[in-house]
Design brief:
The protein is an alpha+beta fold. The chain has seven helices and 14 strands. The chain starts with a helix and ends with a strand.
C-alpha cells in the first residue's frame, strides 16, 4: 500500500523538478540607470577595470525576435566596447566577466538615445530592446586594440597573397603591408613629400568583389555605375603627399608609381577605412584593391 501511494507522489515530484529546471533563467535586476541586467551564463572570468575594454559578440532585438543588429555581420571576430561609451551602459558592462553570456534590456527610447538614432513619429517608445552579449575577452583597451589591428592585418595580408597566387600575379609590398603591382612603367619621376599628385583610379572591395567608385569614365560605363552628375566629372583625383586628404594606403603606395605608371594597389583596412563601415558599400575591415594611373606630379 505504501509503495503504491508513493509512486504518484514521486512522479509529481519529478515533474515539478523538470518544470522548474526548464524555467531556470534568472530574473532581471534593475540597475540605477533604469537598464535591466541578467547573466544567462556566468563563467567567473576577469571583470573590467579602469582602462579595460570588452570584446563581445552581440545581437540587439526589438521585442522577442525582431533582430536590429548582429555584430557577426558587421564586425566578424568581435565588437569592441571601450572607453567613451555611455556611463549607463558601462554600469551594466562592469557586471560582465570574461566568458559570460548576458542580457541587457532597455526601452526603445533609451536605445535610440544611446545609439543616436531617430525614432519614427508615433513609435511606441516603451517597447523593449534586448541586447544579447557574449563576452569573449576583457583586457586593457590599448593592448586589445593593438592586438585586434595586428590580427586583422595578418588576416588581410594572407587574403591578398591568396588572391595574388590564385590570379598568377606577382607583387611587391611595403614594410607596412601595402602591396603593389606596376603593370606599366612611368617616366621615372616619383612623387616626393609635398608634391601634388593626380591619380586616376578604380576601387574594388576585395571581400565583396564590388567596384564601388572610379575616376575612369569608361570603366564606370562598363560597370553600370556611370553618373553624368558626378561632382567634378571623371577627372584624376589630386592630393598632396604627406598631407591629410586621402587614406594612408595611398600615402604609402602611390609614391611607388612614377609619373605615367599604371598598376594595382592592395590596401589592408588598417590603411584604408579601418574597423568602421563607411556606408553600405564599404563594410568594416574592407581590403581595397585599386587600379591606378599616376597622371601628373607637380
Amino acid at each position: 500500500m505504501k509503495v503504491a501511494f508513493l509512486k504518484p507522489f514521486v512522479a509529481l515530484l519529478i515533474a515539478f523538478v523538470i518544470f522548474n529546471s526548464c524555467d531556470s533563467t534568472p530574473a532581471y535586476t534593475e540597475l540605477p540607470s533604469g537598464y535591466k541586467f541578467r547573466a544567462i551564463e556566468a563563467k567567473g572570468g576577469k571583470t573590467p577595470e579602469v582602462g579595460d575594454a570588452l570584446l563581445v559578440e552581440m545581437k540587439h532585438y526589438l521585442g522577442e525576435d525582431s533582430l536590429l543588429f548582429d555584430s557577426n555581420k558587421t564586425n566578424p571576430g568581435g565588437f569592441m566596447l571601450r572607453t567613451g561609451i555611455s556611463p549607463d551602459l558601462m554600469e551594466a558592462l562592469n557586471m560582465c566577466g570574461e566568458g559570460d553570456s548576458v542580457q541587457i534590456q532597455m526601452s526603445l527610447e533609451e536605445y535610440a538615445s544611446l545609439s543616436g538614432g531617430m525614432l519614427p513619429e508615433g513609435a511606441d517608445t516603451t517597447q523593449k530592446i534586448t541586447w544579447n552579449l557574449r563576452v569573449m575577452k576583457v583586457n586593457n583597451e590599448s593592448t586589445m586594440l593593438e592586438n585586434m589591428i595586428l590580427n586583422q592585418k595578418e588576416k588581410e595580408v594572407k587574403y591578398i597573397n591568396e588572391h595574388l597566387v590564385n590570379n598568377n600575379l606577382e607583387a611587391e609590398h611595403t614594410e607596412e603591408g601595402v602591396y603593389y603591382i606596376i603593370s606599366e612603367e612611368g617616366n621615372g619621376e616619383y612623387p616626393q613629400e609635398g608634391d601634388s599628385v593626380f591619380v586616376n583610379y578604380a576601387v574594388t572591395v576585395m571581400q565583396t568583389g564590388e567596384l564601388i567608385d572610379t575616376s575612369f569614365e569608361e570603366i564606370a560605363k562598363e560597370n553600370n555605375i556611370h553618373n553624368p552628375r558626378r561632382r567634378g566629372g571623371y577627372v584624376p583625383y589630386g592630393f598632396v603627399i604627406g598631407r591629410p586628404g586621402v587614406i594612408p594606403g595611398w600615402q604609402i603606395g602611390v609614391p611607388k608609381f612614377s609619373k605615367g605608371a599604371r598598376g594595382k594597389l592592395f590596401v589592408p583596412s588598417q590603411y584604408g577605412y579601418g574597423a568602421r563601415p563607411r556606408g553600405p558599400q564599404i563594410p568594416a575591415n574592407s581590403t581595397l584593391m585599386f587600379e591606378i594611373e599616376v597622371v601628373d606630379i607637380k
